[in-house]
Amino acid sequence: MSNIYLRTAITVGAFVVAFMLGYSMSARTGTEPGYFGAVETGAYGAAEASDKVEGISAEDADYYKSLSTE
Fold first, then answer.
1. d(C-alpha 64, C-alpha 70), whole Å
2. Predicted pLDDT of residue 30
3. How many Cα atoms occupy the beta-carbon half-sphere of 38 within 13 Å?
4. Span 9-62, pLDDT tens digits
5. What is the 3-class SS of 8-19, one letter each residue?
6. CA distances in angstroms from 12 to 16, 24, 57, listed in the order given
7. Residue 49, φ and ψ in degrees, nearest 5
8. What is the 8-class DSSP label of residue 37?
9. 42 phi and psi, to 5 degrees?
10. Where are the alpha helices (DSSP H) in 28-48?
C-alpha cells in the first residue's frame, strides 16, 4: 500500500513543479494581459462586420482590406 502513496506523491509533486516552472516561464515572456484582445494584433474579437477598424490608420485598414480581396 505504501508504494501507491509514494507513486501518488511523486506524481502530484511532478505536476506541481511542472506547473510552477511553466507559470514562471510564462510570466517572463513579456506578453501583457489583454494583448490578444487588442485590435492591431488581429486576434480574437478583432474582426467585426464593420468597415471602420479602431486602433489603426485608414491607410493600414485599406492595405488589410486589399489583402483579403486577393
1. 11
2. 65
3. 10
4. 999 999 999 998 888 877 677 665 555 555 555 555 545 556 666 677 888 888
5. HHHHHHHHHHHH
6. 6, 18, 51
7. -80, 65
8. G
9. 70, 25
10. none
Report d(CA 66, CA 45) in Å as an integer: 20
Q: Using CA atoms, how far apart are residues 69 and 61, in angstroms rounded to an integer?
A: 13
Distances (CA, A) of 48 to 5, 15, 40, 52: 53, 40, 13, 9
Tell me the one-letter amino acid at 47.
A
Residue type, 34: G
**Sequence-ordered alpha helix ranges (H) in the chain:** 2-27, 58-69
Q: d(Cα 29, Cα 36) in Å, to the nearest integer?
A: 14
Contact between 44 and 37 under an 8 Å Cβ cutoff? The reply is yes
| Closest alpha carbon to 39 in 11, 61, 70 | 61
Q: Where are the domains of the chain?
A: 2-69
